[in-house]
Backbone:
């Protein structure tokens, strides 16, 4: 039984080291490059503040466009977070996808989507430029 627990723990450690997770503390943010911080920030703004804004506006009265905006914010904000998580494997592809998700946020996400989209576009462009230019690897 003890050997099985040791094997399961070693498998768990290997899996945790192989996958990248979103930052959960300020110490995790210190280790990230600036473009990753911008992508995570844009994602959290789109999801968190987007839902909060939806709840505040929903109190005044339900609106179909408001439901559309929160759906766009959550969907493309989650897409930004997925792009951040996959960025290490294929940086060119996922930085372009992050820019496209950010543009969709800015176009259809309302005020919160515009804020998250602008931040995400900066993060995606910096990620793309960091492939060729060392100055963007801050």
Residues:
């Amino acid at each position: 039984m003890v050997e099985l627990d040791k094997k399961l723990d070693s498998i768990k450690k290997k899996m945790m080291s192989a996958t990248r997770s979103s930052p959960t503390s300020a110490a995790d943010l210190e280790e990230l490059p600036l473009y990753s911080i911008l992508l995570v920030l844009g994602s959290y703004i789109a999801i968190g503040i987007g839902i909060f804004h939806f709840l505040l506006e929903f109190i005044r009265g339900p609106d179909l466009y408001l439901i559309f905006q929160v759906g766009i914010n959550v969907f493309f904000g989650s897409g930004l977070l997925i792009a951040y998580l996959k960025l290490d494997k294929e940086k060119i592809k996922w930085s372009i996808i992050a820019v496209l998700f950010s543009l969709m946020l800015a176009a259809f996400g309302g005020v919160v989507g515009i804020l998250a989209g602008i931040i995400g576009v900066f993060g995606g462009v910096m990620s793309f430029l960091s492939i060729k230019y060392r100055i963007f690897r801050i």
